[in-house]
# Entry
Amino acid sequence: MTKYIFITGGVVSSIGKGITAASIGQILKSRGLKVTIQKHDPYLNVDAGTMSPFQHGEAFITEDGAETDLDLGHYERFIDLNLTRENSVTTGKIYNTVISKERKGEFWGKTVQIIPHVTDEIKASIKRLNKPGQPPLDVIIVEIGGTIGDIEGLPFLEAIRQFRNDIGKENVLYIHVSFFPYIKSAKEIKSKPTQHSIKELRSIGIQPDLLICRAQARLTVSVKDKISLFCDIPKEGIIEAEDVSSIYEMPIILEEQGLGDLIIKMLRLPEQKPDLQEWRKMVYRLYHPDRRVNIAVIGKYIKSKDAYMSINEALVHAGIYHNCRVEIKRIDTDLLCKNDIKRILKGIQGVIIPGGFTTKGVEGKIRAIRYARENQIPFMGICLGMQCGLIEFARNILNLTDANSMEFNPYTSHPIFKQLEELKGITSEKGAMRLGSYACSLTKGTLAYKIYERDQIQERHRHLYGFNNHFLPEFEQAGIIFSGVNLESKIIEIFELTNHPWFIGMQYHPEYKSRPNRPHPMFASFLEAALKQV
Ligand code: GLN
# Structure
């Protein structure tokens, strides 16, 4: 029988609920339990694909091509599992389903209402994580996005309240993650905001079983006593989650306070010792680097620290592998259009140009790539970064001065990138994209082949434009090696340069598949090359 853990957040957003959910997933998985994590985002967007990275950070792409909240990236990295579109639920998605059922007459004349129809659909989306014909999961963790008190979160809270009644008290656990501010002048940690948040939860019928405290300083015994008394939570169920230098330490912090055993006991799961040895080793390495390397990540969303989350994490993972600390210098493309590139990239040992859409910042990226190519600085181009890499080459080596992607200039006489054939004719309100996992065949003898050590790889995608194969011979003659291609569609997946320490562009996003204990080979190899420049 599957057990369910529901995680809610109190007082303010951005207190690391996602990391908490992911960490709980990890400490349960380390006990040999089969776990998955689902995110419920109460916004009306059907998925995260249409949201600006300035507001919500990156969209995380799953194997099956869902554009999801970045928390799914944390879940995958912590529990080392590939999630699917079913792990991401939004109000938009729920309403979409309910309304299309209504249009088909599936409610048989009933008045369609938030309770029970919307709440039923929310509950069904949780239960769907168990697949017919497959053994049930041991634990499903559900993180409810937003903060208690948000109007839009109410149907989700109502659904998880009903859930306990539906399947029995002993099968459900509510965990509240809350914030405790420190008032400097009074030298005191304040529990009042959390008390209010829990009061609000209780008014809708949810009594949290455990409380995870994100406090700005250590909680005193008296504060814990007070919370326990006012909020009706046993003292041992009040767990501190202090700020840590790395998110990867969080499972250890929680485990050391007995959270794992407590959850096992409360949910009557089989008792088992956790095996966090590998995880601890990884965190130890992360905290004890013996080298340092400076990597520039150049993009237009740089002002949002979450916009390139998976790339940052992939660099951290590669750093753990190489025992080095990766200093990520985030450079705004606006800066590159006008200023002296040499000065901006001074002291940089590697340049990454991430994915992106629309013209803004493209010319700055192309200038940076030229600098990296001419000055032998390792360069990794991801999706749009790869496209810019080939545009730069076309303009400056092939002398096709107006070479461009049709995304940036539909009238260019040298359309190096054009809209993917396979997407033509697909009309979706949102615009079609090539999303999710696709195969790529690697050519023997190339750097890409050496990095992956195999002929076939699967990587995740999110793009509309692809290399225009009409230009392929011209590029090859000038020294570009097309080392990866999708054999079915002939879409170019990887290009590389040989007369350079490391110059690779990828049409896919390797960052989504990197894990702390298993860095993505492309990032590991890129960092190795960058380290040689130190
Ligand atoms: N805008 C480019 C395309 O659609 C690149 C997309 C991306 O970088 N994710 O092809």
